[in-house]
Amino acid sequence: MDHRATQAERGRDLERLLTFIDAIVAIAITLLVLPLADLASGVTGSGSVADLLRVHQAQIWSFLLSFAVIARLWFAQHRAVRHLQDADATVSWLLVLWTLTIVFLPFPTALVAEAGHQAVVKVLYIGTITVSMVVIGLTVRTIRRRPPLADGVGLPQMAPSVVSAVLLGVALVITLAIPATTYYPLLLLMTESWVLRAYDAVAASRTARRTTHEDDAEPPVPDAAAGSETVRRGAGPAE
Hints:
Elements: H1 2-39, H2 49-55, H3 57-81, H4 89-104, H5 106-115, H6 119-145, H7 159-177, H8 192-217, H9 224-234
């Protein structure tokens, strides 16, 4: 009974932690839109909304970009903890660290609107997203190494986190090497599903070839009936 009570309490602790994280993500997204809400006061009798939108298009662009990024990171984190039924200290602190990257993201978002062309801003912005994805990967790795933390139905996969982190690294290299691309290289993240399908196809092909090679390498099993017949012939009456 005590074991069941302890397990139930740990389950409630995990639920509270995940609820806390979801609330922080919602607050972070809200913080992104607050600067845009302040822009409404800039509309005067002589000015138009179209002029306001044109003047502040960089802020609007950075808001939309970061909204999409945070949403994507949340979905990735959700996939990582979908089958989690218990969280030890390592998983808990990794989730808290991931939350820190989300809380910090509105700061580089504001920098993107004001000085997005600077290399240091690109490193700070894309670097924060990359760190967030790496932390998700570490969380997945920890859960996979400790199956009792999961519900027994399934385990999170490492491939999506690894592919996303690699694509983010490539995007950072491209935007630094070709400044005119600005933040468009982040669209590489949209190719994640294609890369994963290609990876699965290559892995399946390798597994099939390995299985075929192992089957060919196995020595043929002698036929028991034929062996018995040979023995009987060799044991015939001597002349």
